[in-house]
Amino acid sequence: xxxxxxxxxxxxxxxxxxxxxxxxxxxxxxxxxxxxxxxxxxxxxxxxxxxxxxxxxxxxxxxxxxxxxxxxxxxxxxxxxxxxxxxxxxxxxxxxxxxxxxxxxxxxxxxxxxxxxxxxxxxxxxxxxxxxxxxxxxxxxxxxxxxxxxxxxxxxxxxxxxx
Length: 163
Ligand SMILES: Cc1cc2nc3c(=O)[nH]c(=O)nc-3n(C[C@H](O)[C@H](O)[C@H](O)COP(=O)(O)O)c2cc1C
Prior knowledge:
Layout: E1 2-7, H1 13-26, E2 32-37, H2 43-47, E3 49-59, E4 62-63, H3 65-72, E5 83-90, H4 97-110, E6 114-115, E7 131-134, H5 138-159
Parallel strand pairs: 1-2, 1-3, 3-5, 5-6, 5-7
Antiparallel strand pairs: 3-4
Helix pairs in contact: 1-5
This protein binds flavin mononucleotide.
């Protein structure tokens, strides 16, 4: 099963966490992780993906404008019915990463995606809206991003079993 991990990253933090998510996805047998920057998305891989992660830096307590522009324009392929999950990086806890995640989730719902995080249902680490890494605990957050990748991949396999 193909799973796309899409990210925007100017200074590398969100890309690093996208790589951690890809590592987590790859621990789940039967999945193939495709890691793409927003401006270099493999349209065929995305079209064939059952699950899609979106990663954003927090800009002015919201999603970066580059994702807003991407969602405003026609999608490169239909996103409806795909499982979606979100992650963000930010400088500080009060910086608005949750709003960045919620804004992405809103765009995904408008496109008809199914949204999943695992929430509190998977136990520790609790990941309510999506995975967030802050400047102050960036390195320590990496295992949580790998767990997030694994959880979403397992849910995708459960929802879309392949013969
Ligand atoms: C234009 C701009 C606005 C930002 N606004 C916020 C903000 O509101 N809250 C916050 O916590 N960090 C903010 N940051 C910091 C970034 O979210 C943070 O450094 C992020 O990890 C950068 O991701 P990247 O390295 O993948 O580009 C801002 C950075 C830039 C460049």
